[in-house]
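ingest -> validate -> predict -> emit
validate: passed (alphabet ok, no gaps, 439 aa)
predict: started
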Amino acid sequence: MTQSLLAPGFKTSPWWWEAAEPPQRDNTLPDRAPVVVVGGGYAGLSAALTLQRLGQQAVVLDAERIGWGASSRNGGMVSGGLKVAGSGLEQRYGPQQAQAITAAAAASFPFIEETIAREGIDCDYVRCGRFSAAWSPRHYDAMARRVESLEQLTGLPARMLPRERQREALGSDHYHGGMLVAATGSLHPGKYARGLAAAAERAGARLVDGVRVQGIREEGSGYRIATDRGELRSDAVLVTTNGYSRDARGTALPWLARRLVPLNSYIIATEELGEAVIDRLFPGRRMVSDSKRVLNYFRPSPDGRRVLWGGRASFRAATAEDTAPALHGYMTECFPELRDTRITHAWTGYVAFTFDHLPHIGAERGIHYAAGCQGSGVAMATWLGHNVALKLAGAANARFALDGLPFPTRPFYSGDPAWVLPLIGGWYRLRDRIDRLAA
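emit:
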């Protein structure tokens, strides 16, 4: 990596950890637990909180530290179910079920706002809105066809902003206009993970670090769970490992891993720029993402002093430091004035996609799961965890539209997409270039 891009003290840990690094917790493994939740991210913590409120004692296990994975590494963009709304549901499920699915996904946004307020989670949350930047005029037209339905779905304003007015939302001429959506917030993901964990603990959940689940098998009316620290028994099991579901050292639920495509997402943080620069680059301090197939997402930091820029910088195994120059290049294509700005942090984490582009909850052989947030998991994972907990406890008042949908995989797919991702990524990048040239 070009050393001139690195600020003094450069780190390959998330910038979020400067204020909220996941703490070490007790890793004593109990012999038995009524409900074991495998995965200590947003979904698992939200599920544990709901289970405790329903009188179900939950023990949450994480192979690393609670909140160590994507929950403290993501971009902190809170966007609800907007991706689900654009995934061609009517053709697959018909208008009635498609409407139910999109409504269920959209409900994740008010739910996370309610959770933050109810639990008093100090995580720098702001309902700031999002600017979805169009990579080409054709992408802009596609957004325009969706804007009215998104406004109806969220109950909050959504409108198009043509290219000649783009600087009202973004201090750049790099895109072809875009869509302003009010139903988006921003938060500090590390603080949110820490606050959600604290809420689960206050409710009585037990959170255990450093326990890697290697297998689950039925035993009588319950389950025996094998870990790298011994075995425990449980009446019920919930797996919420999402992008971290496949692990060569032990996979909790191989059936689930075969239905998820883990993908690295990379983020850099710039050195401090000052609030005047940030306000020029991000009028209104909204969240921003573009419409490329190999997308970029970017935002001002919560303190309004630096830029956080993320994207799919590599489809091969690569370190955060290796991919930082590519992200810096994407950033300066959009913001040329940041060409000499240095990077203080670069990091990566896994997100999980599904073959049908939908989130899922359900049960396989009695083992419950929640997964597949398509790279937009802050609100969705919290919402999925809550709903799968209701299902597990038999407390759901109505069927949840994302529960029990067909959950496809592909022949011979084991959960490791490493051999094919570079091919797919290269094809997507080529199509992005073609779209841009056509513009």
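The first strand starts at residue 6 and ends at 11.
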